[in-house]
Amino acid sequence: MTIGAGGSGAGGPGHPVTPAAPDPALHWQPTAIAFVVLGAAFGAPARLAIEDAWTARPGGVPVSTLCINLSGALALGLLLEFLALQGADDGWRRSARLLFGTGFCGAFTTYSTLAVETDLLLRVHDLGTAAAYAAISVVAGVACAAAGVALAFAAHSGRWSLRRGVAPNGAPDRRAVGGAVEGDGDGGGDGGGDGGGGGSPP
Question: What is d(CA 79, CA 153) in angstroms, rounded to the nearest whole number?
């Protein structure tokens, strides 16, 4: 609490000035919680539907869980890189991250199921399958997330290049600069014609 140095009212001399209360942490904000819950309400049923429709055979690699986790990692990398390229984590970008990233992807992917399924493979002494399943899930998950980041960055770079009149391969974009090139050609032709006329004898 500070004492006002001048002015009138609550901020005048001898009157305390109470600083504004800071915003509560994000995980305590009702709006943020609502976005996460809403996204999870769609992510978890989507995962359950895939697992019910694609049941792993006993003793085999749980392909459904593997595909769920890898596709979720790809989507999360794509989403977060896209949002990061749009600007700071506030406003609609934060809402989208909470809804689709923390909410949907967080409930859609399931590393707890990965741990349980790996343990079940170990219990039946299928060490090779258990090790391969765990390793592929982690390594390929990181690769899929990196691929999502790369895809978002490539799409953003290509769109930015087209806006600036440069095609994604670095060549001038004819759609953006074609009109300007044609205009320069017409102007050069007129100038050349006028110049030639001026140099001809009367």
Answer: 11
Looking up tokens 């349980």, which residue turns up?
Answer: 116
At 2, which helix (H) or strand (E)? strand 2-3
As given in the structure block, the two tokens for residue 191 are 């100038």
**Which amino acid makes up residue 191?**
G
How far is the CA of 139 from the CAs of 69, 131, 133, 165, 178, in angstroms? 11, 12, 10, 39, 46
Q: Against a cut of 0.85, is the pTM above it?
A: no
Q: Which two tokens stand for residue 12?
A: 């005048």
Tens-digit pLDDT profile for residues 83-102:
999 999 999 999 999 999 99
Ranges of each domain in the chain: 29-174
From the list 80, 46, 79, 82, the residue with the least C-alpha distance to 64 is 46
Q: What token pair was written down for 134?
A: 């765990």
Q: What is the pLDDT of residues 20-70, one digit of tens each?
A: 667 788 878 899 999 999 999 999 999 999 999 988 777 778 999 999 999
Q: What is the pLDDT of residues 13-25, one digit of tens each?
A: 556 666 666 778 8
Say which residues have a Cβ less than 8 Å from residue 126's Cβ, sequence separation at least 6.
59
- Between helix 127-163 and helix 63-86 the angle, nearest 10°, is 30
In angstroms, rounded to a whole number, what is the distance separating the alpha carbons of residues 157 and 199?
50
Question: Tell me, what DSSP letter sits at residue 96?
Answer: H
